Amino acid sequence: MCCWRARDLLRLQMGRNGRDVRNLASEDLEDTEDSEDTEDPEDTEVTMESEELMDIMRSRRSIRAFHPDPLTQDQIDTLIEALLSAPSAGNLQSRQFFFVTNKELQRELVRAALGQDFIAEAPLVVVACTDARIQRRYGSRGTSLYSFMDVAASVQNAMLVAQAMGLGTCWVGAFNEEPVHALLKLPPNLRPVTMFPVGRPAERPRAPHRVSRTAAVSFVE
Ligand SMILES: Cc1cc2nc3c(=O)[nH]c(=O)nc-3n(C[C@H](O)[C@H](O)[C@H](O)COP(=O)(O)O)c2cc1C
């Protein structure tokens, strides 16, 4: 599984501008989409073939059984890069991630997640939050729509690069938000919207059914 090149996958996603724009006053937010350091396309060597990327997407499964061995620092750094390199509305990156490795906290997360025990089997659980400060620029559409898309794009990035590194993940949306908010001592602007365990898979689930192309896609010419 590790023949997939996680670094190549990240390079496909990464920009170079890493500045934190989330604390800017609303009048300053206008500038955040500007490309300050446009790269010469010749500089960006992409060696991963699209078919390799498709293989990663096709083979990713929701994993609900994990080996307990901890992740390496390199794996954690790669997951962070993947989360941060996702697109976001106005490039506001209106999202926050909490990497939970403490077992007692993980068991509390299981309780909040209606007893989904597999969550605490994994060495790492990432809790992903929207940040209501996006409202400053985009109003209710920002808080009710864009912020969730921002988080979802990050989470999918992380899940794909985890797969490329031979790690399993499972998107967990079924949980009570209040206890998670309290457990992580979150400020009022942050809302936990998903969590996902990450670890070495202890199962190989079959691919579940997907709808046909015709059921899901219409061509409008
Ligand atoms: C928004 C969302 C919420 C989900 N919540 C849960 C959950 O709470 N528990 C769980 O075991 N799986 C959850 N899943 C995973 C789905 O069950 C899984 O993606 C789906 O069955 C397809 O399987 P696959 O991921 O292996 O392709 C969630 C997925 C999404 C996108």
Detailed description of the structure:
- With 221 residues, this protein is α+β, with helices and mostly antiparallel strands.
- The protein has a domain at 53-203: NADH Oxidase (3-Layer(aba) Sandwich).
- It is 38% helix and 12% strand.
- The protein is built from eight helices and four strands; from the N terminus they run H-H-H-E-H-H-E-H-E-H-E-H.
- It has helices spanning 6-13, 50-59, 73-84, 103-112, 118-121, 135-164, 177-183, 213-216; strands at 95-100, 124-131, 168-169, 190-199.
- A four-stranded antiparallel beta sheet has the order 1-2-4-3, sandwiched between helices.
- The chain is globular.
- It starts with 5 loop residues before the first helix and ends in a 5-residue tail after the last helix.
- Flavin mononucleotide binds next to loops.
Which features would summarize this protein structure in a list?
221 residues, 8 helices, binds flavin mononucleotide, alpha+beta, single chain
Layout of SSEs?
Blueprint: H1 6-13, H2 50-59, H3 73-84, E1 95-100, H4 103-112, H5 118-121, E2 124-131, H6 135-164, E3 168-169, H7 177-183, E4 190-199, H8 213-216
Antiparallel strand pairs: 1-2, 2-4, 3-4
The structure holds flavin mononucleotide (FMN).
